[in-house]
Amino acid sequence: MPVTSPFASLIDQVTIDAPWSLVEAFSKMPRWKPVDVEGAAHDIAGRLKALGVPVRLEEANLHLSIPYTASVTAGGETFNAKPPAYARDCREGLTAPLVHVPATISNSINTLFVKSQDPKASSEENIRGKIIISEGFSFPGKILEFEEKGALGVIAINPGADSHHGICTSIWGTPDLDDLPRKPTIPVAAVNNPDGQKLLKIAQAGGEVTIRTEMEQGWYKSLIPVVDIPGSEEPEKFVLLHGHYDSWDVGVGDNATGDAAMLEIARVLWANKGELKRTVRIAWWPGHSTGRYAGSTWYADTHALDLDENCVAQVNCDSPGCRWATEFRDVSWMKETESFCQQTIREVTGLESQGDRPHRAGDYAFNNIGLSSFFMLSSTMPEQLRKEKDYYAVGGCGGNIAWHTEHDQLEIADKDILLRDTKVYLAAVMGVATAGVLPFDWRTIAAEFSETIASYQEAAGSLADLSPAAKAASDLAAALEAFYASIENGTLTPAQANPVIQRLARILVPVNHTNKPRFRHDPALPVLPLPAIAVAKDLAGYGPDKIGFAQTQMVRGVNRVAAAIKDATRLVQGASK
Fold it and tell me: GO CC terms for this protein (predicted)?
């Protein structure tokens, strides 16, 4: 289908030569040890310079955990394993009784990060003093719960024939003093499914197991390549396009392809910089894999005030261009960006798309500042194909289960799909960087707030009163209707409307996506919509010993939500006068 995007002339300039050269180079370059990661940063910078694109290397000091080897010994047999980053170094070995806590394997990206272990088997009595074995990945919610209940170690049974690399800390980025109590202190190992089944039999027989993990942890100098393509009308305002260049092993689909797409976008935009109204900033992050998004979090911290004042949107580029990824399904986007994203994808590819609320994952390190955000994963394989291949859900690589394994090699990338996805990202970035009025529709958020509040009220029944929040959301919806009508009839100019659209993100993104105050980072755990009042979903399950405390939390949460929405309403009404 022909491209109908208004940026067709730029899209036609996208080629596969420079990006594919990077993909091929990175397919031979492991990128999780700090020395290798630094080499990759210089490689990216060298390629940009060779293309005539100016680049700077910012130096970050990151706290990272570098995993090496792990093993699990039981029943006279030793099983190879992978230790997730931030597991405890335990080279000497830890031996304890092995206990099974059953868990379900997620079949959807939407539930991939949700704890799924059996609540009865998760009792402290069953867990304390034991090494726990449980199905699934070594994601932080599970590890944190087991450690808090006294587990001495954890073995995660991954779903398939390969075990997966990962990171088990719930701390987002480099820890601060308040985060340190959540730093894992137990060894953790991931085994493949066949070995896990053998270990389950040992657990069922009441056997013991020994975990060994070899880890390195500390502070590391890390380089962040950054490109600024200046806008001609509002150069201080910018769109942030970003993705991680460190990886597990050579990580072709996660995320050499993303690095390559951003390289090509930098080339095309630099050659056409006169067409930009706003600046496009492109950044490649280290510390994604071994620091729970430490690179992007460092940047969010270090440049927080600039981001707060001037960033109009952040766009994450992770795992584009993978084989069989012919659909745009389960794409991450905040609701106010949905129609813009769908239109962009349709204009470039002719495909319809479906998206979801961003997961508390990827390099979404900017929620607490309050940035309108879209994309993380982009294209993926059709669900029917995934079922035919008997693939379980993973967090990248276009759905390929080579994700986070040594098999994420060159064959995972697809030249044609990478070319197409690069064009989508380019068009999306251009759409924000050149728009007269920023293309984000906050009316959709007001409607979403009303739906969320109504569902929470239904769940809570008479146990809570959410009417102040419901009234605030209704008032915001009315104010936004008038605001956008004023934009459409010309009463409000772009210069008047855009500061309001940007400021709305600073108010409404945090209240919808965070629990922590602005400029702090929530844990890497799922965050429900309007999280301050999400406890409403569970009120009916609290007994008499806790219901009063839960209701107190609800009152405070309603106050936070209603006050934030009222602030947004006053902002909108002030612009419409």
Answer: extracellular region; lysosome
